[in-house]
Amino acid sequence: MKKIDIRPHTVTVVRTDGTKEEVPYQIKESLVEILFNRELKLNGVGVIKQNQLAEKILASGLDELLLEDEEYERITRALSLVEGLGKNDVEFAKRVINATQV
Fold it and tell me: Which pick of 2, 39, 45, 93 has the fewest CB atoms within 10 Å?
């Protein structure tokens, strides 16, 4: 099993008027988003399976997410296909890639 730290962390965003604001980066919601990346080319069975994992993620506690090895592999595959990540996504990617073995 793998354990991912899912506590929100703070990132800085620059508004259109040039001002900066500190906002929470929502790990759980980001994990759910990448599960449905179009590059995964999910079929009907695949999208249902991903949705079951998404529901597990959203129902998890506030601090950590425990994943079976197969679930973790699905998340890392999805993360590897996501394009357009930026500096604010570094901590998110680190938490997934460096998940603790339990």
Answer: 45
